[in-house]
Amino acid sequence: MRAYRLAYDGRPFRGFQRQPDVSTVEDAVFDALRDLDVLAEGVDKPDGYAAAGRTDAGVSARAQTVAFETPAWLSARAFNSELPASVRAWASADVGTEFHATHDAVSRTYRYHLYAPRDGGGRPLDEVRVRDALDRLAGEHDFHNLTPDDEGTRRDLSTTVERDGDFLVVRLEAGGFARQLVRRVVGLAAEVGRGESDLGKVDRVFAAEEIEGPEGVAPAAPYPLALWDVAYPGVAFEVDEDASESAREVFGARATEFLTRGRVAGEIRDSLE
Fold first, then answer.
1. Each residue's pLDDT tens digit, 206-219
2. What is the rounded CA–CA span in Å between residue 117 and residue 24?
3. Which residues take part in binding substrate (predicted)?
4. Which CATH number do you get for residue 111?
5. Residue 150 designated active-site
6. Residue 121 located in a structural domain
């Protein structure tokens, strides 16, 4: 068995997990394995296959982790030879036959970038109020009002926020996350930060009563979110320098492209004032 770290830009995909008739990251992984003759045609998935998490449509990853039975020659670099440029393997580790990429993870860390310019442009976001909301959301709670799931809603959540230029970088860590929980936690913190809700709403979402309709919490947009890290005790991932360099080049080019698009959009906006 071998485990691989995958980084991907989630915006071209409808999430990680395979779905009928739409493009997903998992489809790209399995297509690459078939092209490499690691996965035979007609076989659903590799032996022992599992993934660390099921990121939503548009969500990116730095350290999504997949593991499966594979020949020794399949390095991260070899994997990349058939993966699309938007998906890059960059590290791997030999693991035992009993390893399970989902169940053996002891923590998962997500990072979300909230736009909060210091000059108050755009939709003003009060940094202190965001921090207060996240502090109150931290700890062990039943987050049933922040996920569509009916089970697995009790989580022990760690939250931090750091300013990076015009962004507040929210870091959320837990052993696991129910569906949409990360985005709804961020959505609630942003509501409080914009003054649309008070801190009392945090207490209300923890109450046993269901909160629905306008009183509920909508998930924040997916594209500023990334699965940042997944921790496995005793597993030492070895970075493939060639594969890592390839990933840096790909994401560097994408960052430049997005900056350029932003500049053009900004100039169009300014010309219409």
1. 998 888 776 789 99
2. 33
3. 110
4. 3.30.70.660
5. no
6. yes
